[in-house]
TrEMBL record:
<feature type="transmembrane region" description="Helical">
    <location>
        <begin position="353"/>
        <end position="377"/>
    </location>
</feature>
<feature type="transmembrane region" description="Helical">
    <location>
        <begin position="324"/>
        <end position="341"/>
    </location>
</feature>
<comment type="pathway">
    <text>Porphyrin-containing compound metabolism; heme A biosynthesis; heme A from heme O: step 1/1.</text>
</comment>
<dbReference type="InterPro" id="IPR003780">
    <property type="entry name" value="COX15/CtaA_fam"/>
</dbReference>
<dbReference type="GO" id="GO:0005743">
    <property type="term" value="C:mitochondrial inner membrane"/>
</dbReference>
<dbReference type="GO" id="GO:0006784">
    <property type="term" value="P:heme A biosynthetic process"/>
</dbReference>
<feature type="transmembrane region" description="Helical">
    <location>
        <begin position="261"/>
        <end position="282"/>
    </location>
</feature>
<keyword id="KW-0479">Metal-binding</keyword>
<dbReference type="InterPro" id="IPR023754">
    <property type="entry name" value="HemeA_Synthase_type2"/>
</dbReference>
<dbReference type="Pfam" id="PF02628">
    <property type="entry name" value="COX15-CtaA"/>
</dbReference>
<protein>
    <recommendedName>
        <fullName>Cytochrome c oxidase assembly homolog 15 (yeast)</fullName>
    </recommendedName>
</protein>
<feature type="transmembrane region" description="Helical">
    <location>
        <begin position="220"/>
        <end position="240"/>
    </location>
</feature>
<dbReference type="GO" id="GO:0046872">
    <property type="term" value="F:metal ion binding"/>
</dbReference>
<dbReference type="InterPro" id="IPR009003">
    <property type="entry name" value="Peptidase_S1_PA"/>
</dbReference>
<keyword id="KW-0812">Transmembrane</keyword>
<dbReference type="GO" id="GO:0016653">
    <property type="term" value="F:oxidoreductase activity, acting on NAD(P)H, heme protein as acceptor"/>
</dbReference>
<feature type="transmembrane region" description="Helical">
    <location>
        <begin position="152"/>
        <end position="170"/>
    </location>
</feature>
Length: 408
């Protein structure tokens, strides 16, 4: 096209000599301008036709790792809340704060008058009247700070979920599926706080027909612990799934059986940890402090003392301790079977390591549980045993994350 135009110009106002192409003086500037304009138009056209560089999609592998680390960090904060809640329970501190305010109670009493006013409120409830009627103000401050610390940690957990969710949402780090998950996790954190206060209220109620020491309902305690464990499992599973690259495992029959075995074992670990809430709620660890027998018998006489029979599984301390023993033995047996089954298979190194850690922790947890029982439930050992249940659950989730299906 450019050559044709030049020929037209030459035929209309140029002459060819031995020295080359010569232009008339009037036409020389106009031809130069035309060539410049033509060149600029060609450059612009080529620039428009060139494909634009591909934009980096969000979310991507890098943002997934960031979100994964955040969720794993949140699950660690949930562990702290569970352990601190267990210590609060073991020190009988959970009923020291008789009110619940989202913001007002974030600042503990400062002056002597404020402490005395808080102590007077505590004195109006059954735990002081029946169990702690000779408690001093100094002793009250200890149990108050235990419960206050547990509640403040719960608020920290809530902020750790909600604030980064807002930030990552605005940055576009979540796909549609992840948006639903994080909204569910944030909603569950709020529900967990309300459930905690609902549990505490059960220990503040007057029960004239009962001669037992004041304590929270074991049903509400189990619901509070169970919801915390669910929050922990969901956060850790999602975080590990985003952080760890999936293992491309062959879909053999043996692998399918191993996956099912692992899921069943993980469910058993969760159920055993949850049964510990009934043991704690009923102080069932103080009923029979011997092992492997319960007293002089394998099956105590008072296992079926309550009527109807089903009530024994949730309200009879003897039956509750027996159930926890059976679940613990069943769990370590299942984990041992999983370990032996996995040894015969060719698995990635990380999966082998996860199963080995799970097995080692299972036997450690059994040793902690038996020691806690034989030593009449000392607070440090009991808290370590409770923390061990979370460690065992952590390794179970790790195993499931390593064995998960990966889309091709």
């Amino acid at each position: 096209m450019l050559l044709t135009s030049l020929r037209t110009v030459v035929s209309s106002g140029c002459r060819i000599t031995g020295k080359g192409l010569q232009l008339n003086n009037a036409q020389r500037p106009s031809l130069r301008q035309w060539v410049v304009r033509r060149g600029k138009a060609t450059i612009v056209a080529e620039a428009r036709a060139a494909p634009a560089p591909a934009a980096v999609s969000v979310p991507n592998a890098a943002t997934n790792r960031v979100v994964g680390r955040w969720l794993v960090g949140c699950s660690g904060l949930v562990v702290g809340a569970v352990v601190l809640g267990g210590v609060t329970r073991l020190t009988e501190s959970g009923l020291s704060m008789v009110d619940w305010h989202l913001v007002k109670e974030m600042k503990p009493p400062q002056t002597q008058a404020e402490w005395e006013a808080e102590f007077q409120k505590y004195q109006q409830f059954p735990e002081f009247k029946i169990l702690n009627h000779d408690m001093t103000l100094t002793e009250f401050k200890f149990i108050f700070y235990m419960e206050w610390g547990h509640r403040m940690w719960g608020r920290l957990v809530g902020l750790a979920y909600i604030l980064p969710t807002v930030y990552f949402w605005k940055k576009g780090y979540f796909n549609r599926s992840m948006k639903g998950r994080v909204l569910g996790l944030c909603g569950f954190v709020c529900f967990q706080g309300l459930l905690g206060w609902y549990m505490v209220k059960s220990g503040l109620e007057e029960k004239p027909e009962s001669y037992d020491i004041p304590r929270v309902s074991q049903y509400r305690l189990a619901a509070h612990l169970g919801s915390a464990l669910l929050l922990y499992c969901a956060s850790l599973w999602t975080g590990l799934s985003l952080m760890l690259p999936g293992n491309k495992l062959p879909n053999t029959r043996q692998l399918m059986l191993l996956r099912r075995f692992a899921y069943g074992t993980g469910g058993l670990v969760f159920l055993t940890a949850l049964s510990g809430a009934f043991v704690a709620g009923l102080d069932a660890g103080l009923v029979y402090n011997s092992f492997p027998k319960m007293g002089e018998r394998w099956l105590p006489d008072d296992m079926w003392a309550f009527s109807p029979t089903l009530k024994n599984f949730f309200e009879n301390p003897t039956t509750v301790q027996f159930d926890h023993r059976i679940l613990g033995i069943s769990t370590v047996s299942a984990i041992t079977g999983l370990f032996l089954f996995a040894r015969k298979m060719r698995l990635p190194r990380r999966a082998k390591l996860a199963i080995g850690c799970l097995t080692a922790m299972a036997y450690t947890q059994v040793g902690l549980g038996i020691s806690t029982l034989l030593m009449y439930v000392p607070t440090p050992l009991a808290a370590t045993h409770q923390s061990g249940s979370l460690a065992l659950l952590t390794f179970a989730i790790w195993v499931l994350a390593e064995l998960r299906r990966v889309a091709k």
